[in-house]
Structure formats: C-alpha cells, structure tokens
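Our consortium's second objective concerns turning raw sequence data into structural hypotheses that experimental partners can test. To show how far this objective has progressed, the report includes one record in full. It was chosen at random from the queue rather than selected for favorable results. The single chain below, 354 residues long, was entered without modification.
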Amino acid sequence: MERNNNRVLVRFDALQAFIGAALRQVGLPDGDAAKVATLMAQADLQGSDGHGVIRLAPYVKRIRAGGMNPRPQIRVVHERAAAAVLDGDNGMGHLVVSRAVELAIEKARTSGVAWVGVRASNHAGPASLYARMPLEHDMIGLYVAVGNANHLPPWGGAEMLLSTNPIAVGIPTASEPPVVLDMATTVAAYGKVKAKAKAGEMMPEGWMIDRQGKPLVDPSRADEGFLLPIGGHKGYGLALIVGLLAGTLQGAAMGRDVIDFNRDDVSKTNTGQAILVIDLRAFGDPAHFKAAVDQVVRDLRNSERLDGVERIWLPGEQSHQRREQYRANGIPLSAGVVADLAVLATELGIAPLP
C-alpha cells in the first residue's frame, strides 16, 4: 500500500485476496468466496466505493450473527422459457444475482429476451456490475433492485417507505466504452452517504433533508433525515415502480417489509433483484447495432458544448477510465476504511491488507 492525498492506494489483486480470505474465514466455500471477492473488488475498481470493501465488515458481522447464509442452496422456484424466479436461500446477494444473470443469458440465447428475478437475496453491490455481465455475450442488460433499507418517503410524506431502488442498463458497443447507466432513484445512493461519513467529508446540499425540510449535509446525522428523489415526484414514482418490479413481482420485500440491514444483523432481508437480458441477435446483426451505438456516442461526445465545459461524458465512461487508472496505479481507499480493515483482519485472524 502507498499513501496519496490522504488516501491509501491498494492493488486490485491484493484487495481481492483480502476480501476472499475474510469471507472464507466466516464460512463461504472457496469458489463462492472468490466470486464475491472479485465482484466486491470490482466495485472499488470502478469507483463505486460505497458498495465495495467498505461493506465487508458489515457482511462479516451479519454472517456471524446468523442473518446471512454463507452456504446457500440457490434454486429455481418458478420457470418458463423466457422467465424464472430464483430463491437465494438468504445467501450473499453477489452469488444470487450472478446466478440470475447467468440463467438469463442462457435463456436469452434461445428466446431472445429473458427476465430472471430473485427473492431471499441480500445486498449485492453496485447495480452496474450485473448490467455489464451480458455485454460480452452481445446482449443488453437491465438490472433493478430493492435497496436494503428505506431512506425515501412517498412524495409529500415523512415516513420512509421506499428505498434508493437502483436501476442499471448496459449497452454494448463496437470500439467505444460500453454505455452503462447506473443510478439510484434518489439523488445519491445511501452507500455514498456512508462513504462520506467514513472519509470524514460533508455531503453536497441536495442529497438529504431533515424532517423540517432543511438541507442536511453532515453524513453523521443521516438518521435525522431522508434522501431526496431524483426529479422530485418523478423520482418517487420511479422508485415505486422499480420496487414493484424488483421486489413485489418476485415475492421479495417491499415497503414496510424492507429490513434495514444497517441496524438489524439477524433478520432475513428477503431482498429482491431482477435482470432483463436482451440478445442483440434477436434484432439483427449485433455488429451493426454496436457500430450504430458507437456513432451515437461520438455524436454526443463531439457535439457543441456550453462555455466552460471541457468534455461531454457518456454514462459509464468515467467508471471505465477509473478501472484503467486504478488497475495501473492502485485503488484509493480512505484511511478510515483501511483502519477498519486492519481491525477486521485482527478479529478474523487473517493477514492484513498488504
């Protein structure tokens, strides 16, 4: 590790190995631990630091408390040619959702389009990880999920009955970076609030308000308020629809049934997620589509800019650049996160992060 501007730079493979060692120590089989470790490290690699290794200690705590099953028997409970529902047996969300994506890709090869949803899952990291998985198969991925704690009231309300309920879409390209939209239905995901708190930084105005409707910028006071939806009432409506599709449709938790996994380490969260996969071959030659997307990307990037704007970015481009930069130079982790990982290593009796 090396320090850079109050951040600690960690190699991807070192982070991946550390996470895997911790998960094996709390009961995950070798293959499952390696799979989850890769996905968690990939979250940090792309800059999704609210969903990466910062979540390791809470995961470990939850597994030790019996709130999450380290050896799940993931199974299909409903199935048709182009659809399925998986029961995750309260396993780590990374394992459950990965299985859902694999099944959706397999079905889409035959049916052209496939929807696979899950119930009895858990937090699975950033949505874009799963929307990206179909890309290498010349397929589009659309992922939706119910967040693991309610931080959003209905528009005009004060009772938090909805979560950040993210949506992500991955669209393949020919030579440009893939177009990958990953967004919460709130202005900021709650993981970003946690990351700001761990780094000792304030939040921008517009992320949260308190119960008097005033801006809330101190992440250590997050419990005193709630997140704001994107686009006002439109974001509230989108959060509701995503929750119904990702949760209610699969028989997973939604609304009052959502368990706050930040406060409750024992109860099953019954988290719901779903992936829609579209095979480009069902619509023609994938090469033609990807070349057309490349052209749209270039048209947007090279279009006329407002004064003072250096570059127009496409969804997913900055994450793509971070992957290349962090893989070459190291992943920046806050000193607070590194300190927590050192404590965790001592508790588990594993080697510290190198």
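The partners drew two points from this record. The two ends are 6 Å apart (CA to CA). The chain has a mean pLDDT of 95. Both points have been shared with the crystallography group to help prioritize constructs.
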